[in-house]
């Protein structure tokens, strides 16, 4: 029976950790709250499916003086992406789609997508696709689709002009968004570079088309309910609103409130790239399913080989992100890293310069949330907070080094 909450279920020593060394995690990140860098946070570290360290600190809402608690709900943003990727691979396992399928098979507007070659936002020069965009391009962020908030390229600016920066034009659903994105130039020919963008949102739409269900219905039926992820959804309603954390951004090294979308009812656009809200307990169960080879508490979500396949570097020719990816905003380091089907994958921890294991896979969210799964050491770590953007402070690499330095077995 897997753990269902975030309470510690095993002593650090039993899990191979030094208890005193584990306290360095809390000691370090308490400073982030005390000096105003973060509003509050939660961290859970498990080994072999048992929780060895769990703590919270600070506030989920500074203005109303509400503490961050073990069941606090927050915006997961891009930690939605691995769940959407798992959803697509469920359909893959059923033979309902193939990784080499053209995206236009399911979303016809992508058939005539153009690729940026030069020019300005007012007069972009484009060409046709030399290789059609395929589903594996979406899973690996090699599609040429981008994000408006990168602020680094003409194609990013075109997204912003169309109303896509940190949000979407009012009233649009994912079907309409996909049609607009298909009409904007791709940043490059599919499969030739890595670029973080709306690829997983497009993938979520394909899940809807193939399954005949809305994304929230598919998630609930095939992933969330089987795993007991009762607090994970695209909106937060009823008595759960009291547990919902406020969103913050830094101002002069201090946290200031950023009003987010109300999220008190089902949104028009179900974002497979960043729309879910949830708790650490729920996401831990999702991670334990992955660590356990696709199964948890008798509920099999994926086959074990599929999970291993997803956690394999799928960049062409075994490339690393440092060479293949554009040096833009992303939820991972680039050195020593590859990218699988929905996750970043550590290829060389020495090259990455953060202690860890080759083969561990991870991702994070725009509000500085993060997780990783290490099949070598049987470790899962989940870190939640609510600070935009995630690149503000070096949370993820420091958390990782503080976890691994505590291993003594």
Question: Can you describe this structure?
Answer:
This protein is an alpha+beta fold and 409 residues long. The chain is 28% helix and 17% strand. It has two domains: 19-76 and 217-404, Beta-lactamase (3-Layer(aba) Sandwich); 88-211, DD-peptidase/beta-lactamase superfamily (Beta-lactamase, 3-Layer(aba) Sandwich). It has helices at residues 19-34, 81-93, 135-140, 154-161, 174-182, 199-211, 215-227, 280-291, 304-310, 321-324, 349-352, 396-404; strands spanning 40-47, 50-61, 66-67, 74-75, 114-119, 124-128, 248-251, 254-257, 277-278, 295-296, 299-300, 337-339, 344-346, 361-364, 370-374, 379-384. The strands form five sheets. Strands 3-2-1-16-15-14-13-12 form an eight-stranded antiparallel beta sheet, with helices on both faces. The radius of gyration is 20 Å and the shape is globular. The model has no long low-confidence stretch (mean pLDDT 95).
Radius of gyration: 20 Å
Order of helices and strands: HEEEEHEEHHHHHEEEHEEHHEEHEEEH
Question: What is the strand content?
Answer: 15-25%
Task: Note the main sheet.
Answer: 8 strands, antiparallel
Give the helix level as a range of percent: 25-40%
Spatial arrangement of strands, main beta sheet: 3-2-1-16-15-14-13-12
CATH superfamily of the largest domain: DD-peptidase/beta-lactamase superfamily
* Unreliable residue runs: none
Categorize the overall geometry.
Answer: globular
CATH topology of the largest domain: Beta-lactamase
From the helix content, strand content and strand pairing, which structural class follows?
alpha+beta
Tell me the span between the first and last alpha carbons: 24 Å
Query: How many domain modules?
Result: 2
CATH architecture of the largest domain: 3-Layer(aba) Sandwich
What is the overall pLDDT average? 95
Please count the helical segments.
12
CATH class category name of the largest domain: Alpha Beta
Give a count of the beta strands, DSSP E runs of length 2 or more: 16
